[in-house]
Amino acid sequence: MKLYQSNASPNSRRIRVYLAEKGISMPIVPVDLGAREQFSDAYAAINPRRVVPTLVLDDGSAIGEVPVIIRYLEDIHPAPPLLGSTPKKRAEIAMWERRVEQEGFASVMEAVRNAAPRLANRAIAGPYDYAQIPDLVERSKQRLLNFYADTDARLADVPFVAGDEFSIADITAIVTVDFATKAAGLAIPDKHTALKRWYESVSARASMAA
Amino acid sequence: MKLYQSNASPNSRRIRVYLAEKGISMPIVPVDLGAREQFSDAYAAINPRRVVPTLVLDDGSAIGEVPVIIRYLEDIHPAPPLLGSTPKKRAEIAMWERRVEQEGFASVMEAVRNAAPRLANRAIAGPYDYAQIPDLVERSKQRLLNFYADTDARLADVPFVAGDEFSIADITAIVTVDFATKAAGLAIPDKHTALKRWYESVSARASMAA
Questions:
Q1: Which of A142, A171, B7, B109 is the most buried (most CB within 10 A)?
Q2: Sign of the CA dihedral running B90, B83, B162, B2
Q3: Rounded to two decimals, what is the model's pTM?
Q4: Portion of chain B with pLDDT greater than 70, in percent
């Protein structure tokens, strides 16, 4: 098993932090996005969407899509559980992780991809070129601010994004905040005290350096 | 356990078809989207995103997000398997289902929500109003056409979207095609013979009337 990934990719970081939390190590194959290596025939053969990361199994099967890679790794390495250990807990964690991804992570990605000059015609990751739509940038930033407000309200009631336990939902949320801060200039507003407290606490975990 | 859903909602149909395939029945609670019932306090209490469907368990816990609801139902009703029965098969099916959702289903939803006069300021489902962005409509339609082309190429090689077996990926794909045809006037182009053959065959399953 080996992981194709890029240190510059927030989606790859989601996997790296998960691996660090679980104590799983595996060979890493760097994919140089700056050199457009994801568009090579070799990479397209393992990921037709031309995105990182991809997990390649020992039989050559390729697994793409971050939550799917993580679910597979959790299936074969169940302890310690980061995706829940009963059907109900698994559902609650997956639901919150997906909300973070759709409202937070996807909003930052959309804001960045529709604005960065180096991504002209690359507004959506994948095999096809799509022109940037400037009107999307402000809307996406507003979506991220709404995500911050909603998550702050939730974290005033529960210690972690999915409830009582640290989970994959927190990993996606930390990667979202760091990506928003660095790539879109949108750090957590000071008024969101519960979200900031959660961020300081969760960011201190050793895995977050991954 | 009961399902809050709307017959007008393609996301709800994904669950209805799954339930029909599995032979699971449960009480259905209709949510009247036309009357904006999803914005009622009662519904917001079970789904803070104000979207359908939501599965409410006997202890009152609410599970939202279509793939999460389906994964929960599959956990408690494993036979017949529609999400795979080994870690690797589960990963392959989840990967393909997610690609269909992101490239196909989400594209149609975006095209419709940014165009329909009744959805002015409702370009994104959820608790917040967002103005429509007309430039998104054509881009989303192009994304759907690219999804059709990619899926046609895949179905020239394998009988079902995720490979050898009928799965949840086929359900999401059928709901996408029917929604695109009805709501965006984008039926499968005649040139995509493998995709059309798959569509005719899978659409004939009794579950698809759900």
A1: A171
A2: negative
A3: 0.97
A4: 100
Among chain A residues, the shortest Cα distance to B75 is held by: A87
Tokens of B9: 């909602």
A124: nearest CA partner in chain B: B143
Enumerate domains of chain B plus CATH numbers. Answer: 2-76 (3.40.30.10), 87-209 (1.20.1050.10)
Q: How far is A80 from chain B (nearest CA, A)?
A: 18
Instruction: Determine which helix (DSSP H) or strand (DSSP E) holds A180, and give its type and residue range.
Output: helix A168-184
Contacts A88 to B, Cβ<8 Å: 57, 61, 63, 72
Q: What's the confidence (pLDDT) of residue A161?
A: 98
Give the residue from A47, A65, A150, A152 with the most B CB atoms within 10 Å of its CB, the best one to mutate: A65
List pLDDT tens digits, range B94-135: 999 999 999 999 999 999 999 999 999 999 999 999 999 999
* Closest residue in chain B to residue A141, using alpha carbons only: B130
Residues A96-111, mean pLDDT to the nearest whole number: 98
Does the distance separating the beta carbons of A142 and B65 come in below 8 Å? no
Quick one: pLDDT at residue A129?
A: 96
Buried/exposed code over A120-129 (b: 16+ C-beta within 10 A; e: otherwise): eebbbbbebe
Q: What is the mean pLDDT of residues A84-91?
A: 97
DSSP 3-state of A53: coil
Residue B105 and residue B99: Cα distance in Å, rounded?
A: 9
